[in-house]
Design brief:
single chain, alpha/beta, 4-stranded antiparallel sheet, about 35% helix, globular
Length: about 290
Protein backbone atom coordinates (compact mmCIF):
# COMPACT_ATOMS: atom_id res chain seq x y z
CA UNK A 1 0.00 0.00 0.00
CA UNK A 2 1.34 3.43 -0.89
CA UNK A 3 2.23 5.74 1.99
CA UNK A 4 -0.11 8.63 2.70
CA UNK A 5 1.53 11.90 1.75
CA UNK A 6 0.75 14.97 3.79
CA UNK A 7 1.45 18.56 2.88
CA UNK A 8 3.11 20.62 5.59
CA UNK A 9 3.36 24.35 6.03
CA UNK A 10 6.98 25.44 6.30
CA UNK A 11 8.22 27.22 9.40
CA UNK A 12 10.31 30.36 8.89
CA UNK A 13 13.97 29.74 8.12
CA UNK A 14 16.17 31.12 10.85
CA UNK A 15 19.20 33.18 9.91
CA UNK A 16 22.32 32.64 11.98
CA UNK A 17 23.03 35.56 14.31
CA UNK A 18 26.26 37.45 13.52
CA UNK A 19 27.89 36.60 16.85
CA UNK A 20 27.01 32.91 16.44
CA UNK A 21 28.39 32.93 12.91
CA UNK A 22 31.65 34.47 14.14
CA UNK A 23 32.00 31.89 16.89
CA UNK A 24 31.28 29.05 14.45
CA UNK A 25 33.93 30.30 12.04
CA UNK A 26 36.61 29.86 14.72
CA UNK A 27 35.48 26.45 16.01
CA UNK A 28 37.08 23.09 15.16
CA UNK A 29 34.18 21.20 16.74
CA UNK A 30 30.50 22.07 16.81
CA UNK A 31 28.73 23.04 20.05
CA UNK A 32 27.62 19.38 20.33
CA UNK A 33 31.22 18.16 19.79
CA UNK A 34 30.88 17.13 16.15
CA UNK A 35 34.10 17.07 14.15
CA UNK A 36 34.86 19.74 11.55
CA UNK A 37 34.79 17.97 8.17
CA UNK A 38 34.89 20.81 5.61
CA UNK A 39 36.91 23.94 6.38
CA UNK A 40 37.47 26.34 3.50
CA UNK A 41 39.19 29.61 4.30
CA UNK A 42 39.11 32.69 2.09
CA UNK A 43 38.96 30.64 -1.12
CA UNK A 44 39.20 32.43 -4.46
CA UNK A 45 38.98 31.03 -7.97
CA UNK A 46 39.96 33.07 -11.01
CA UNK A 47 39.60 31.76 -14.56
CA UNK A 48 41.66 33.46 -17.27
CA UNK A 49 40.04 33.73 -20.70
CA UNK A 50 42.60 35.50 -22.84
CA UNK A 51 43.05 38.94 -21.33
CA UNK A 52 39.87 38.61 -19.27
CA UNK A 53 39.81 37.36 -15.68
CA UNK A 54 36.60 35.79 -14.38
CA UNK A 55 36.34 35.78 -10.59
CA UNK A 56 34.15 32.75 -9.86
CA UNK A 57 34.77 32.76 -6.10
CA UNK A 58 35.75 35.81 -4.09
CA UNK A 59 37.13 35.01 -0.65
CA UNK A 60 34.64 32.32 0.37
CA UNK A 61 34.89 30.75 3.83
CA UNK A 62 32.67 27.88 5.00
CA UNK A 63 32.68 25.27 7.75
CA UNK A 64 30.62 22.07 7.67
CA UNK A 65 30.57 19.72 10.65
CA UNK A 66 30.21 15.96 10.76
CA UNK A 67 26.61 14.88 10.28
CA UNK A 68 25.37 18.13 8.74
CA UNK A 69 23.07 18.17 5.71
CA UNK A 70 23.77 21.36 3.74
CA UNK A 71 22.47 22.75 0.47
CA UNK A 72 24.35 25.34 -1.59
CA UNK A 73 22.15 27.50 -3.80
CA UNK A 74 22.47 30.44 -6.12
CA UNK A 75 21.55 31.67 -9.59
CA UNK A 76 23.56 30.89 -12.69
CA UNK A 77 26.99 32.44 -12.44
CA UNK A 78 26.91 32.68 -8.64
CA UNK A 79 29.88 30.31 -8.22
CA UNK A 80 28.09 27.25 -6.83
CA UNK A 81 29.39 24.89 -9.55
CA UNK A 82 32.93 26.12 -8.92
CA UNK A 83 32.37 25.58 -5.20
CA UNK A 84 31.29 21.99 -5.91
CA UNK A 85 34.39 21.39 -8.03
CA UNK A 86 36.66 22.60 -5.22
CA UNK A 87 34.77 20.80 -2.44
CA UNK A 88 35.00 17.61 -4.51
CA UNK A 89 38.76 18.04 -5.10
CA UNK A 90 38.07 18.19 -8.83
CA UNK A 91 39.69 21.62 -9.10
CA UNK A 92 42.10 23.71 -7.05
CA UNK A 93 41.45 27.20 -5.70
CA UNK A 94 43.52 30.11 -6.96
CA UNK A 95 44.18 31.10 -3.35
CA UNK A 96 42.99 30.19 0.11
CA UNK A 97 42.95 27.00 2.16
CA UNK A 98 40.76 23.88 2.08
CA UNK A 99 40.91 21.26 4.82
CA UNK A 100 38.86 18.12 4.25
CA UNK A 101 38.62 15.81 7.24
CA UNK A 102 41.84 17.41 8.62
CA UNK A 103 43.71 16.99 5.32
CA UNK A 104 45.01 20.11 3.52
CA UNK A 105 43.92 19.53 -0.09
CA UNK A 106 44.21 23.06 -1.50
CA UNK A 107 47.70 22.61 -2.91
CA UNK A 108 47.79 18.88 -3.66
CA UNK A 109 48.94 17.43 -6.98
CA UNK A 110 46.51 15.65 -9.30
CA UNK A 111 47.56 12.16 -8.20
CA UNK A 112 47.08 13.11 -4.57
CA UNK A 113 43.68 14.63 -5.30
CA UNK A 114 42.58 11.41 -7.03
CA UNK A 115 43.42 9.46 -3.88
CA UNK A 116 41.51 11.94 -1.72
CA UNK A 117 38.46 11.70 -3.99
CA UNK A 118 38.51 7.91 -3.76
CA UNK A 119 38.96 7.76 0.01
CA UNK A 120 37.07 10.74 1.41
CA UNK A 121 34.43 11.92 -1.10
CA UNK A 122 31.34 10.25 -2.52
CA UNK A 123 29.77 11.82 -5.61
CA UNK A 124 26.16 11.64 -6.79
CA UNK A 125 25.50 13.39 -10.12
CA UNK A 126 22.30 14.37 -11.87
CA UNK A 127 23.06 12.06 -14.81
CA UNK A 128 23.85 8.96 -12.66
CA UNK A 129 27.16 8.27 -14.51
CA UNK A 130 26.70 4.49 -14.57
CA UNK A 131 28.51 2.09 -16.92
CA UNK A 132 26.04 0.79 -19.50
CA UNK A 133 27.21 -2.84 -19.58
CA UNK A 134 27.92 -3.30 -15.87
CA UNK A 135 25.46 -4.65 -13.31
CA UNK A 136 24.60 -2.79 -10.12
CA UNK A 137 26.87 -4.86 -7.88
CA UNK A 138 29.93 -4.25 -10.06
CA UNK A 139 29.09 -0.54 -10.37
CA UNK A 140 29.21 -0.19 -6.60
CA UNK A 141 32.38 -2.26 -6.30
CA UNK A 142 34.37 0.11 -8.53
CA UNK A 143 35.56 2.60 -5.84
CA UNK A 144 36.61 -0.34 -3.67
CA UNK A 145 38.46 -1.91 -6.59
CA UNK A 146 40.43 1.28 -7.21
CA UNK A 147 41.27 1.49 -3.49
CA UNK A 148 42.31 -2.16 -3.25
CA UNK A 149 39.69 -2.84 -0.56
CA UNK A 150 39.04 -6.51 0.32
CA UNK A 151 35.56 -8.06 0.58
CA UNK A 152 34.31 -5.84 -2.21
CA UNK A 153 31.25 -7.89 -3.15
CA UNK A 154 30.00 -8.07 0.43
CA UNK A 155 30.44 -4.34 1.00
CA UNK A 156 28.80 -3.46 -2.33
CA UNK A 157 25.87 -5.77 -1.58
CA UNK A 158 25.39 -4.13 1.83
CA UNK A 159 25.45 -0.66 0.25
CA UNK A 160 22.83 -1.65 -2.33
CA UNK A 161 20.66 -3.20 0.34
CA UNK A 162 20.87 0.03 2.36
CA UNK A 163 19.25 1.93 -0.54
CA UNK A 164 16.58 -0.70 -1.14
CA UNK A 165 18.14 -2.51 -4.11
CA UNK A 166 19.01 -5.85 -2.55
CA UNK A 167 16.87 -7.54 -5.21
CA UNK A 168 18.51 -5.68 -8.12
CA UNK A 169 22.15 -6.67 -7.63
CA UNK A 170 22.64 -8.07 -11.11
CA UNK A 171 20.46 -5.67 -13.08
CA UNK A 172 22.06 -3.41 -15.70
CA UNK A 173 21.17 0.30 -16.02
CA UNK A 174 18.76 -0.37 -18.92
CA UNK A 175 16.83 -2.70 -16.62
CA UNK A 176 16.43 -0.08 -13.90
CA UNK A 177 14.20 2.98 -13.61
CA UNK A 178 15.74 6.43 -13.26
CA UNK A 179 15.17 6.41 -9.52
CA UNK A 180 16.75 2.98 -9.18
CA UNK A 181 19.77 4.08 -11.23
CA UNK A 182 20.25 7.05 -8.91
CA UNK A 183 20.04 4.71 -5.93
CA UNK A 184 22.84 2.62 -7.46
CA UNK A 185 24.84 5.85 -7.76
CA UNK A 186 24.14 6.64 -4.09
CA UNK A 187 25.28 3.14 -3.06
CA UNK A 188 28.47 3.65 -5.07
CA UNK A 189 29.02 7.01 -3.35
CA UNK A 190 28.67 5.65 0.20
CA UNK A 191 30.26 2.20 -0.14
CA UNK A 192 33.72 3.40 0.95
CA UNK A 193 32.30 5.29 3.96
CA UNK A 194 33.52 8.72 2.76
CA UNK A 195 33.91 11.80 4.94
CA UNK A 196 31.38 13.67 2.78
CA UNK A 197 28.82 12.90 0.09
CA UNK A 198 28.40 15.60 -2.58
CA UNK A 199 25.20 15.73 -4.61
CA UNK A 200 25.10 17.76 -7.83
CA UNK A 201 21.37 18.25 -8.54
CA UNK A 202 20.80 14.60 -7.52
CA UNK A 203 17.04 14.73 -8.19
CA UNK A 204 17.24 16.93 -11.29
CA UNK A 205 16.68 14.12 -13.83
CA UNK A 206 13.93 12.35 -11.86
CA UNK A 207 10.15 12.58 -11.70
CA UNK A 208 8.66 13.91 -8.48
CA UNK A 209 7.99 10.49 -6.92
CA UNK A 210 11.48 9.15 -7.67
CA UNK A 211 12.97 12.41 -6.49
CA UNK A 212 11.21 12.09 -3.15
CA UNK A 213 12.47 8.52 -2.79
CA UNK A 214 16.04 9.69 -3.38
CA UNK A 215 15.65 12.53 -0.87
CA UNK A 216 14.26 10.03 1.64
CA UNK A 217 17.40 7.89 1.25
CA UNK A 218 19.69 10.89 1.74
CA UNK A 219 17.79 11.91 4.87
CA UNK A 220 18.03 8.37 6.23
CA UNK A 221 21.78 8.25 5.56
CA UNK A 222 22.23 11.61 7.25
CA UNK A 223 20.00 10.98 10.26
CA UNK A 224 20.65 7.31 10.91
CA UNK A 225 24.27 6.93 9.80
CA UNK A 226 25.30 10.54 10.51
CA UNK A 227 26.74 10.99 7.02
CA UNK A 228 27.78 14.50 6.06
CA UNK A 229 25.91 15.50 2.90
CA UNK A 230 26.27 18.63 0.75
CA UNK A 231 23.87 19.34 -2.12
CA UNK A 232 24.36 21.87 -4.90
CA UNK A 233 20.89 22.58 -6.24
CA UNK A 234 18.67 25.11 -8.01
CA UNK A 235 15.59 23.53 -6.45
CA UNK A 236 14.32 25.32 -3.35
CA UNK A 237 12.04 22.40 -2.49
CA UNK A 238 15.05 20.06 -2.41
CA UNK A 239 16.96 22.55 -0.28
CA UNK A 240 14.16 22.63 2.29
CA UNK A 241 14.89 18.96 3.05
CA UNK A 242 18.35 19.91 4.33
CA UNK A 243 19.34 21.39 7.69
CA UNK A 244 21.17 24.45 6.39
CA UNK A 245 20.98 26.60 3.26
CA UNK A 246 24.03 28.51 1.99
CA UNK A 247 23.38 31.02 -0.80
CA UNK A 248 25.98 32.41 -3.18
CA UNK A 249 25.87 35.61 -5.17
CA UNK A 250 28.63 36.80 -7.52
CA UNK A 251 31.14 34.40 -5.98
CA UNK A 252 30.40 35.33 -2.37
CA UNK A 253 28.32 33.74 0.38
CA UNK A 254 25.51 36.18 1.11
CA UNK A 255 23.27 34.00 3.28
CA UNK A 256 23.94 31.03 5.58
CA UNK A 257 20.77 29.96 7.38
CA UNK A 258 19.64 27.04 9.51
CA UNK A 259 16.38 25.30 8.60
CA UNK A 260 14.69 24.69 11.96
CA UNK A 261 12.08 22.26 10.62
CA UNK A 262 13.28 20.61 7.38
CA UNK A 263 10.77 18.89 5.14
CA UNK A 264 10.53 15.14 5.74
CA UNK A 265 10.77 13.38 2.37
CA UNK A 266 8.62 10.52 3.66
CA UNK A 267 5.62 12.74 4.48
CA UNK A 268 5.90 15.92 2.41
CA UNK A 269 4.66 16.46 -1.12
CA UNK A 270 5.94 19.20 -3.39
CA UNK A 271 3.87 22.37 -2.82
CA UNK A 272 2.95 24.74 -5.62
CA UNK A 273 5.00 27.43 -3.88
CA UNK A 274 7.06 28.03 -0.75
CA UNK A 275 6.43 31.55 0.61
CA UNK A 276 9.30 31.39 3.11
CA UNK A 277 11.91 30.47 0.52
CA UNK A 278 10.47 32.89 -2.02
CA UNK A 279 10.85 35.68 0.55
CA UNK A 280 14.41 34.58 1.32
CA UNK A 281 15.33 34.53 -2.37
CA UNK A 282 13.81 37.96 -2.88
CA UNK A 283 15.72 39.38 0.08
CA UNK A 284 19.01 37.72 -0.92
CA UNK A 285 19.04 38.41 -4.64
CA UNK A 286 17.10 41.67 -4.89
CA UNK A 287 18.97 43.62 -2.22
CA UNK A 288 22.23 45.40 -3.16
CA UNK A 289 25.37 43.53 -2.11
CA UNK A 290 26.17 46.24 0.45
CA UNK A 291 23.15 44.98 2.39
CA UNK A 292 25.14 41.82 3.28
CA UNK A 293 28.43 43.49 4.12
Amino acid sequence: MDAVIETRTAEPIAEQAPDAATAASNATVSPDNRKLVIDIRNITKVYKMGDVEVHALRGVSLKVYEGEFVSIMGPSGSGKSTMLQILGALDQPTSGEYFLDDVDVAKMRDTQLAKIRNQKIGFVFQSFNLLARTDALRQVELPLLYAGTPNRSRLAKEALESVGLGDRLHHHPTELSGGQQQRVAIARAIVSNPAIVLGDEPTGALDSHSGQEVLKIFQQLNREKKMTVVFVTHDSFVARHTDRIVMLRDGEIVTDRRVPDPYDAATTERPSSDPELEAMFKETYSAPKEHFA
